[in-house]
Amino acid sequence: MGEIKLKDLTIYAYHGCFAEETQIGAEYKLDVWVQGDFTLAEQQDDLSKTVDYVKISDIVYKEMQISSKLIEHVANRILVKIFSDFKQVKLAGVLIKKPNPPMNQYSDTVEYKLERTR
Q1: In the Cβ-directed half-sphere of 109, how many Cα atoms lie within 13 Å?
Q2: In this structure, how many other beta carbons lie within 10 angstroms of the beta carbon of residue 56?
């Protein structure tokens, strides 16, 4: 089984429970990975036999543009869409890093990691 990883995708988006978060927005960092049998791509050097990482990044961007209160909700939408669009994916995961979350103590980021299998 092979794995394709996209690391540190940077996307400006508007997520959060506070009005300020949905108005000001923030720059989020995301890691996304998919696993599957990519043997045909390895042997045939054919993009149609693998998962196109450009399409994965497009899915992530599109889902990040839909404002949500929770990054957990966004992570779920991303994985649902990946599984819907790529039948050869057996496992997919996403890590969303929210910078400078609004809380009483300083934290560089809050992260949510979600991984699912088909």
Answers
A1: 14
A2: 25
CATH number of the domain where residue 46 is located: 3.30.1130.10
- Tell me the pLDDT of the chain (118 aa) as tens digits: 999 999 999 999 999 998 888 899 999 999 999 999 999 999 999 999 999 999 999 999 999 999 999 999 999 999 999 999 999 999 999 999 998 887 788 888 899 999 999 9
The encoded tokens of residue 96 equal 């969303």
Q: What is the DSSP letter of 70?
A: -
Q: Which domain holds residue 47?
A: 2-117
- DSSP-derived secondary structure for 6-54: EEEEEEEE---SSHHHHHH-EEEEEEEEEEE--HHHHHH--GGGS--HH
Residues in the chain: 118
Our count of domains for the chain comes to 1
Single-letter code of the amino acid located at 61: Y
